[in-house]
Amino acid sequence: MSDTKRRCWVEINLGIIKENYNFFCGLLKPGQHIMAVVKADAYGHGDKETAKALSECGCGHFAVSNIQEALNIRQMVDYDAEILILGYTPPDFFNDLYKHNITQTILSEEYAGLLAANGKRIKCQFAIDSGMNRIGLDADFPEKCEGIIRRYMDKLDITGMFTHLCVADSFKEEDKVFTENQIKKLKAVSSLVKDLNLKEIHCLNTAGGLWHDVYGSTIRLGIAMYGLKPDYSNVLPNGIRPALSWKSVVSMVKRISRGETIGYGRTFRAQHDMVIATIPTGYADGYDRSLSNNGFVLIKGHKAPITGRVCMDQLMADVTSIPDVRMGDIVTLIGTDGNETISADDMAHIAGTIGYEIVCSISKRVEREFIIGA
Ligand SMILES: *Cc1c(COP(=O)(O)O)cnc(C)c1O
Question: Which of 39, 155, 185, 300 is catalytic?
Answer without folding.
Answer: 39
